[in-house]
Design a protein that fits this description.
This is Electron transfer flavoprotein subunit alpha/FixB family protein. This protein has 10 helices and 15 strands. Strands 5-9-4-1-2-3-10 form a 7-stranded parallel sheet, sandwiched between helices. Helix 4 packs across helix 5. The relative contact order is 0.10.
């Protein structure tokens, strides 16, 4: 032991740090009283492309005014095909939020509404999207996306590559001969992508300029007759198709509050296997490898620890919110937002907040 006073590097740095400024600045002699650098808020940069060399159109299904993970991947694929010289037009089959398209890499955003008749939708796509004379069209290899892509190719005689497994600017790779082989080709005029084949755009935000919304055609298909389209009640949506699921685990004892939360949030109810085995929830509500694998946008779990079989049922869920008393529970590690508390205390508090907001 010596009588020398131990240095405090953090205190010394704070005495030499000039207040304000966007970057840390140190003055070694410590005279920083008159050296105040005003900080300026950094403006978010937005890239604008007025006259691109060509256009690439991405057709996405917009649900509740936002893009899901698959939609962002389609926009990312279009942005990759457009490169630095091209522009991306994001056509939403449904309304899109103001910031959704630009953050996803789109230069122009057009909503044509959710239309039930595929022939009418195809006509609007050809009228509005065709006006850009796009080099490529990008669709989802989903039920409606795959159908529209094939209709568009058949109507115009354009080349199409469905179900692409890997995509680059110069080539596409897709399975053939029952999946035993792969076929490599130049990128066709129309391509369809399954989910999780291309990464979403993560670069500088683009302008995402909103274009005038297209009014739906009044002329319906001669072969199909459609009635009114109504939104299904949350409890009537199958668990595998529900966009929002509220689930109960062994940590839930007040099921009246749980049902009230699900109704207030407009969510479909789910449960862990332990709860279903106990007869507290129907077997159809079980989430997991031995139950239902979800494709939800948001999953709110009350009192679920997160067994491996249960987490397998959350493979495609975009956002997970967990309420659990155990900080080290597996569901906490999977969640994007966690509340370490008792579910019986959180559910009444959440109901009170929803009542205040008029939900």
């Amino acid at each position: 032991m010596t009588a020398r006073i131990r240095r405090d590097p953090r205190a010394e740095r704070s005495r030499c740090l000039v207040p304000g400024g966007e970057r840390p600045r140190l003055v070694r002699d410590g005279n920083v009283a008159d050296m105040v650098v005003p900080s300026r808020p950094r403006e978010a940069s937005v890239r604008r492309i007025e006259m691109p060399a060509f256009w690439v159109v991405a057709v996405v299904e917009a649900v509740d005014g936002r893009l899901d993970r698959w939609g962002r991947q389609l926009a990312g694929a279009a942005r990759m095909l457009a490169g630095a010289d091209g522009g991306v037009v994001l056509i939403g089959l449904g309304d899109l939020g103001d910031a959704e398209g630009g953050e996803a890499g789109a230069d122009r955003v057009l909503a044509i509404g959710g239309l039930a008749d595929p022939e009418v939708t195809l006509g609007m796509l050809m009228e509005r999207g065709g006006s850009f004379d796009p080099r490529h069209w990008v669709f989802a290899e989903s039920g409606s996306g795959a159908d529209l892509a094939r209709r568009l190719a058949a109507r115009n005689g354009w080349s199409i590559q469905p179900g692409i497994e890997a995509l680059t600017v110069r080539q596409s790779i897709r399975p053939c001969r029952g999946g035993r082989y792969e076929r490599v080709d130049a990128v066709a005029r129309i391509v369809t992508l399954p989910c999780d084949r291309v990464a979403a755009y993560a670069g500088e935000a683009h302008e995402g300029r909103r274009l005038e919304e297209a009014a739906p055609h009044t002329q319906a298909s001669d072969r199909l007759v459609f009635g009114p389209v109504t939104r299904a009640a949350a409890g009537d949506v199958p668990l595998s198709e529900a966009p929002f699921v509220v689930s109960a685990g062994q940590g839930v004892t007040d099921f009246d509050a749980f049902h009230a939360v699900a109704r207030a949030l407009g969510a479909t109810e789910g449960a862990s296997r332990v709860v279903c085995d106990a007869g507290l929830m129907p077997r159809a509500a079980q989430v997991g490898a031995s139950g239902t694998v979800l494709d939800a946008r948001c999953y709110l779990a009350f009192g679920i620890a997160g067994a491996p079989q249960h987490l397998q049922g959350l493979g495609k869920v975009e956002h997970v919110v967990a309420v659990n008393t155990d900080l080290h529970a597996a569901i906490i590690a999977r969640a994007g937002l966690s509340i370490v508390a008792d579910a019986q205390a959180v559910m009444p508090a959440l109901l009170a907040l929803l009542r205040e907001e008029g939900a």
